[in-house]
Write a structure and sequence with these properties.
Layout lengths: L3 E10 L4 H11 L4 E5 L2 E7 L20 E10 L3 H8 L3 E3 L3 E4 L10 E4 L12 H11 L8 E4 L5 H8 L5 E5 L2 H13 L5 E5 L10 E7 L2 H13 L1 E13 L3 H9 L4 E8 L2 E7 L1
Helix pairs in contact: 3-4
Length: about 280
Amino acid sequence: MNIKYIGYTFRVKPKEPATEILIAQLGFEGFESFVENEDGVTAYIQEKDWNSKILENIQILNSNEFKISVEKEIIEQTNWNSEWEKNFNQIQVNNLVSIRAPFHRNPNLKYDIVIEPKMSFGTGHHETTYMMVQHLISLDLANKKVLDMGCGTGILAIFAEMKGARPIDAIDIDNWCFINSLENVERNNCKQITVYEGDASLLMNKKYDVIIANINRNILLNDMKIYTDCLNDKGVLLLSGFYKKDIPIINAEVSKYDLKLDKIIERNNWVALKYLK
């Protein structure tokens, strides 16, 4: 079946925090994937879920605090890979990890992750994914049980396996991300990763040595107790998906469960935090 997507490209001034608010409101209306850029964000929704009034409930578009313009286009799924070929540049992290599409040349770094991102979040381009890779570089993951919550493309779970983690659970509530993670797990010949479609309710009675949660701030705050209950003693919790200004509220919530902030990585006002239990 030839699935069509409607793409809306939003130019946002000032970009933050308007873009974060815009993405949250669009997600509530059924938009399923977002690609941020220096001018704002492009949001995608399946044509079958679209209607001509879909932007009427996006409150931030009526705000006087921000200037937001929008352009709409119809995108054939069959053309999606060619769109990524035009726009997806290879990423290198700390000269140790390459994150690339199959059409990129292998730079022969220590770790080589091949991702066909399609419509999923998590190519390494976004600051939060990049910083999470940096955190994982510094961790000893050999034989550690790992959870990648909100796995997107599966990139962080894949890197965890490359660093010796086993077993690994990767979870995302979005069906496209679930399917894309399965594809990328196979593409990178991973054997220790199990991918699930769902939310934090899947974590009942689970225990992990390392939990990776690269999700938006409100979901993190809502599910924090579940994450901390699932973390083994002396475990590591990695959190991202929010801005530097959000650190106090995140830290206040995590501190309720006796975890200690150990390390902060910052990139363009986004942050990734490492906590120890």
